[in-house]
Structures are given as structure tokens and as C-alpha cells.
Amino acid sequence: MSRIMMRQMRDNQSGTITAIKAGSELGRRIRDMGLVPGTEIKIQGRAPLYDPVALRVMDFTLTLRNNEADYIEVEVE
Amino acid sequence: MEPTIALAGNPNSGKTTLFNALTGARQHVGNYPGVTVEKKEGTYISNGCKMHIVDLPGTYSLTAYSLEEVVARDFLVNSKPRVVIDIVDASNLERNLYLAIQFLEMGIPVCIALNMIDVAQRRGIEINTQKLATLLGVPVVPTIARNGQGKRELMETAAQIAQQGKELRPLKISYGDDVDQALVEMEAAITAADFLTDTYRARWIALKYMENDEQIMAIGARVNPALAATLTARVRKVSLHLQETLDTYPEAMIADQRYGYIKSILKQGVIQRHYDQNRLYSSDRIDRVLTNRFIGPLIMLAVIAGLYHFTFTYSKTPVGWLESFFGWLGDFMSAHLPDGLLKSLLISGVIDGVGGVIGFVPLIMYMFFGISILEDSGYLARVAFMLDRVFRTFGLHGSSVMAFIVSGGIAGGCAVPGVMATRTLKSPRERLATLLTVPFMNCGAKLPLFALLTATFFAKHEAAIMFAITVGAWGGALLVAKFLRVTVIKGASTPFVMELPPYRWPTFKGLAIHTWERTWQYIKKAGTVILGISILLWAMMTYPGLPASKLQAYAQRRAAEISAFPSAAVLELEAGAKSVRLSAAAQQLKQRLAAIDAHQAEARLRNSLAGRIGIALESVSRWAGFDWRTNIALIGGFAAKEVVVSTLGTAYSLGAVDPEASVSLSQTLAQDPFWTPLLAVGLIVFTMFYSPCFVSVVCISRESGSWKWGAFSVAFNTLLAFSLATLIFQVGSAMGFLAK
Q1: Quick check: ipTM above 0.90?
Q2: CB contact under 8 A, B385 and A47
Q3: What is the number of domains present in chain A?
Q4: Residue A37: its chain B contacts at CB < 8 A?
Q5: Which of B272, B497, B498, B504 is the best mutation test for A, with the most CBs of A within 10 A?
Q6: Residues of chain B found within 8 Å of residue A39, distances taken between Cβ atoms
Q7: Whole-angstrom distance, CA of residue B682 vs CA of residue B705
Q8: What three-state secondary structure class fits A50?
Q9: Nearest residue in B to A57, CA atom
């Protein structure tokens, strides 16, 4: 078990969110979409130019930019 | 008056589909006061029971960050609907309930429509509706909006709540000891001071202070600065404590606890999953192909080209019908009205103006139909996903691409539907930057001038020049967008965080309603203004007319010509039968008279207000090499870009030149020593970048919500274009490039 930022995750890798390190609007939007500590996520893939990243969270697919994923800390196997 | 019911819910929860199913054709679209967010209202009728339904913008939350959320919240608070129907996507329950919880916190009477229950079942998700209703304390009705299933039960339940009209006790969730304690204290202080309590509930105000809500805090600071300061100080205390002990903020804590509350409800046997967590949904399988690193972009190019083809090729037939209708109307008026200013006003001002507005309608309808298919199916979100990396570099958003393409990113588009296409963009700054830069694309109306100049001066390199023009427009637009985003529209990029909704088949009804309402808004809002400006431009190019002495001089010249020819030829011409071949003498007379007419038209144009402006501007425009004729033509181009070529023809005494067949004008320019290839390049660049036509300007103003931005696009673009043209002309002349 180790903690890494979401940007470092590989395609198809799963993990559990441990912290959201963004405040203000970005932090709010990330949390509104259900990315809160304890939520399980799985990286689905990345856009052709390797950014943004798409992930499965709960029952839907979410996409965010790599520089936004930098604020999300995930615990992975 | 019938009771008001609000529809709320997440984007992609089927809210619009339900709204259409409930109201059918009894709906209309307007705007919320002062903002560009669409307000959709309609009437639901069943068993003689009538209800007024307002479709709130789709949101994930009720913060004050996005315009949609503020609008939805303000409507709930100020208009106090009897019931809010919260449409919840059953296949994605957890996240959808986040909004529902916030309604309950506000103490608003809610009825939950558990929508797409069929999709949830197919995915192996089973929901105990009864249990969910009991735990949330509000009615829950399963629905399938696409086929109308559950719609009657839903409305009956909503009507019951509306009739009872009882106060709902706001939901109190525990947000952790520190926050809870502070909330209790703040609530007491708020109640004691009657602080905003006539509009909001005390606990909710306290909660919003805790969440750092800009809107509520701004109102609070205005109403009671002293108490507002006390509340803010209390929040800061909690905030510091939370940061020290748990490394988190109050607003993060609140969001966590809301999701915690939802999880605890779902765990009590509300939801059962009979599927393998790693199973791929069909949507994911489609995405493996459509967003694949190699095939994905190729398919996207094909789809974009298809949309473009659909909009501009298939709309040609109806556009042609409208053109022939207005042409026929003009001819009819011209044949039956006496010559004079009224006739000129009706034909060149009113008919051309109305025709100008209506002429865009098929284009806009086709464009919105095509974009609605991409939007409703979920593909548009994938386009944004794939292209965001490119557009973000220039301070734009992945979704900006559609507006650019439609405006003429593939040469031959039109900025008017392009400006309207920015509606699919939700990020305000990115949207404004897109709005202001799409007119740089090469719309179909600019092409005749480019074709004329290329054919005249670069006859062997037409394809290369066309390619350079397209690349130049894209480069210019993206660089200007970047420039605007670091100057007048600066600010961090709006978070991209976006849902990739599952692929769905669009319904024809949904597409038709979507297309029609957006088109109607264009007609309604732009129509009146455009007619007014069209008349104004007509007046500029007509008044003041030639003085009587000049008119007399032309009449005398005509009479002189006529008397110089044998009377047989005159009679032959007056008989004017088109099919008969004229004798050589009559032919010659006809040409001479036409030449006089053309000279008179030139003199008249030169004498008009537009002409005088053109001449007055010559001292400045010389820097870019433009003479008064070019100036007038470019002023005419503000009315519509295709006018540039025909006005240039008039100014060169060739009569009105048909933009599609401008051989005579081409010859004139080629022989004129004043015209050099360098000047042609300057004029092409100027035309690419200068002020959008006024129809686009009106649309930009409407879509940005302010005339300020319309005026900005006129002034800024013209200045930019003139600087570029001057640079090209001056540097080119000094270096001796492209001389004749």
C-alpha cells in the first residue's frame, strides 16, 4: 500500500482516495462529483494527448485534467 | 393561479426529457433576468389539473461558483415553488443524491423522481424505493422519462405535496463536532438578529458561511456588517482548528459528511448490486474505440467534417428557397412601386434586412440539429475530452472546437451559427474567449473576395493561398484567444472536471424541441435589432443623394446618347423584349447607357455618408494602402461580408458586380497600377480579421449578455486587422515584395 497522486496512476489501476488537497472552486467541484476521501476510483484511460484523464468513480465516468489530478491523493496497492 | 413546480437534477439525469414528456409543446424558453442562462417553462395538464413547471438548469450542487447553480438557488429562494421534483439517475444514485441532500438541508419540499430505473436494472442495480423514501423522508417515484412511464404517479405525488403545503423540517446532518458546535452558535446569533431570515433559514445561512459561499457572504456584509464579521470570525476559528488537527477545511468536511450520510443510507439495504464490479458497460466498450489514441482522432475528424457537411450542404436547398422568395419579393416590389426613396428603403433596407435575418434560419436549424445529436448522444463530451489539451494551451476549452468549425474553421462556414454554438460551453471565461475569436474564421461570405483577389493576383497558386488563409485564420484566432485570456478575460481556467455521460440514442422529439427553441431564440432576439441596423446601413449608403444639378447632368448625358442614335435603335431598346437579339446599334446604345448608370451609381455612393466616411478615412487607410473605394467596400462589409465585392464594383463604376462572377472587376484591378499583389495580401488579411458583420456582432452581444463585448469585437478586431494590414503593406513596400 502506498500513497501517490492521481497523475502518477497507470491506466486500469484502482485505488482509494485519501485526500483532496485543493481548496476554493477546484476543490469544490472535485468534491461535488463525489471524489471525497474513502471513494474508490479506477483509471479508465487518457485522452490521445495523454491529458485529460478519465476515471470510473461510483457508477459514472469522470474526466479531469492532469494538473487537477495533482491535487488528489490516492492509496494504491 | 396554478401551482409552480420546479424540476431540478444533475446534468444527464434525463431532466430535459422528463420536462418534454410533461409539457410537450406547451413550453417556452426565455432567460433568467440579467444572465444568459436559459429559463424553460411549461404547463402540465392532466385530469383538469394544471401545473406551471420550471425546468431549472442542471447542476451537481448548490454552491455559488457557477452561474447555473446561483440561478437555480435564487429561483428556489425567491419564487418559492410549491414542490421541487428532483430527477435522480437511478443508475448513478450515490452522486445524484448529493444534490437531493442539499435541497433537504434547505428545507424545500422535495419529491424524488428515480429516473432511468430500466437502465439501472439492466446494469444489475436494484433499488428499494420504499426504503429510500422512508430514510430520506420524502416520496420517491420510479420513472422512465424516455417513454413517460411513472410520469402520472410522479405528478400526482407532487400535486399532493403542493396541496398539503406543509413546512418541511430541514435535514440536519452532523458535519463533525467542531463544525456542528459552531453551526449551533451561529444559528442562534443569526436568529437573534433576524439576519436574512425572511429569505433563508438560519441554519442554512450558517452553513453557507461555513462553506465560504460568496453570494450569501456578500449579501450578509451589506445587510449587517457587524454580524457578518462575527460569523466570518467564527468560521475562521473552526477553519484554523480543522487545518491544525485534521488538515482539512470546513467546506471539505461538509462535503465529506454529506457523502458519508448518503453512503450510510445506501448501506441500509436501499441498493443491491448483482454484477461484477469490473464488468465493462457497453458505453465503456464504445469508448475503447471512439477515444482510442489512434482511431479516436480519425473518427472525430470524420464526425466534425460530417457535421460541417450536414450544416452547410443540406441547408443549401431551404436557404435557396428563402433567397428566391426574398428575391421574388424584391422584384415584385420593384415592379409595382413607384421609383423613389420608399421603394429603395423597402427593398434595400427592409426586405434585405428581414431576408438577412431569415436567411440564416435554415443554417442555424441544421447546425443545432447536428450539434444536438452529438450533445444528446454524449459524443460532444468525448470531443472536449480528446481536444482539451490543444485548446487549453490557448486558454480555451475542448468544447470550443465546434464553434470554430461552424464559423468557418473549414472555410465556408458562418460566424452567426458559430457564435450560437458556444452555448454548449459551460465555462464562462473560456466561452467568452471563444465567442470573441470565432469571427476570425473564414466564413462563406468572405470567400468571394478571397477568390477575386487570388484569381487576379495569384492565379497559379489558388490552392496554396486558400490553405494559407485557413491556417492563418486558425492561428490568428487561437493566438488572439490566448492574448484575451491573459489580458481582458484573464483568470485561471475554469476547472475541467466533467462527466463523460454514457452513450445514449437521442430521441427525435428531444432533438426537434432543442433545435426549434434555440432557432426561435435567434429569430426573436436578433431579428428586431438586425432589421434596425440594416435600415441604418442602407441610409448610410443612400443619403445624402446626389444634388439636383448632378442628377440633371447625368440625365442630359443620357439624352445626348439617345439622340445620337437612330430612333429605330432607341425604340428597339425601349420595347425591351429580352428574347429578341438586339441590333448592333441598339446593343451599343445599351452599353453606353449602362456606363452612364454605373458612373452615376459611383458618384452617388461617393457622395453618400458611407462614401464620405470612406474618403475621410483615406488619410489613415493609406498606411495599409487602401483607397476610398476599398474603404467603402469594407464599410459595406459590416452589413454582410459578401457586400464587399459588389460595393467595390460600384465604386469602380462597373455597376453592382455579381460576387460569383466578378471577371470585369478582376480585369479592372489587374490593370489598375494602384493594385499590387502586396495590397491584395494586405486586404485579404484585413478582411479575415476586421470587425464581424453586424449580425454576428448582435449575436455576440446577446450571447455574452452585454453590448460592451459586441462593441469590443468591432473596435478590437478592426484595430488588429488594420495593424496587420499596415505592417504587411509598409514592410512589404520597403522590401519591395510582391510589387507589380
Answers
A1: yes
A2: yes
A3: 1
A4: 256
A5: B497
A6: 259
A7: 33
A8: coil
A9: B95
The amino acid occupying position B433 is: A
User: Hey, what's the cell of B723?
Assistant: 495593424
Is the peptide bond prior to B544 cis by the omega test (within 30 degrees of 0)?
yes
Partners of residue B293 in chain A, C-beta under 8 Å: 48
Question: Where do the domains of chain B lie, and which CATH numbers do they carry?
Answer: 4-164 (3.40.50.300), 177-273 (1.10.287.1770)
pLDDT digits (tens, 9 = 90+) for B57-66: 999 999 888 8
Helix H or strand E segment including B650: helix B643-651
- Which ranges of B623-693 would DSSP assign to H, the alpha helix? 628-639, 643-651, 663-671, 677-689
Q: How far is CA B266 from CA B3, B124, B133, B277, B377, in A?
A: 33, 15, 11, 17, 29
pLDDT > 70 in chain B, percent:
96
What are the cell numbers at B326? 426574398
Angle between helices B202-210 and B225-246 (to 10 degrees): 50
Cβ A33–B92 below 8 Å, yes or no? no
DSSP B653: T
Contact A25/B495, CB-based, under 8 Å?
yes
* Residue of B84, B10, B6, B81 whose CA lies nearest to B498: B10
Q: Give me the CATH number covering residue A46.
A: 2.30.30.90
Does the pLDDT of residue B167 top 80, yes or no?
A: no
Q: Do A63 and B293 touch (CB under 8 A)?
A: no
Q: Give the residue numbers in B contacting A (CB under 8 Å), as ranges.
A: 60-61, 63, 65, 91-95, 98, 123, 125, 247, 249, 251-252, 255-256, 259-260, 283-284, 287, 291-294, 296-297, 381, 385-386, 388-390, 392, 494-502
User: Of A32, A62, A65, which is closest to B98 when you measure between CB atoms?
Assistant: A32
The type of residue at B467 is: F
List the one residue out of B418, B478, B477 whose CA is nearest residue B445. Answer: B418
Is residue B677 reached through a cis peptide bond, with omega within 30 degrees of 0 on the bond before it? Answer: no
The three cell numbers of residue B493 are 481556467
Burial of B460: CB neighbours in 10 Å, binned 0-12, 13-18, 19+: exposed
Residue B9 DSSP SS3: strand
B465-492 average pLDDT score: 93
Task: Give the pLDDT confidence of B298-307 residue by residue, as tens digits.
Answer: 999 999 888 8
Cross-chain residue pair A28–B61, CB shorter than 8 Å: yes
Rounded CA separation B383/A45 (Å): 15
Name the residue with cell 450520510: B261
d(CA B426, CA B667): 50
- Cβ–Cβ pairs < 8 A, chains A and B: 123
Higher pLDDT, B582 or B138: B138
What is each CA distance from B163 to B2, B48, B54, B515, B535, in whole angstroms? 11, 15, 18, 36, 54
N- to C-terminal Cα separation, chain A: 5
Find how far residue B346's CA is from the centre of its chain.
30
Task: State the residue range of the domain holding A47.
Answer: 2-76
Q: What is the DSSP string of B584-629?
A: HHHHHHHHHHHHHHHHHHHHHHHHSHHHHHHHHTHHHHGGGT--HH
A→B interface, C-beta within 8 Å: 19-20, 23, 25-34, 36-39, 44-45, 47-52, 54, 57-65, 68
> Chain B closest CA to A3's CA: distance in Å?
16
Among B283, B390, B495, select the one facing A29 at the smallest CB separation: B495
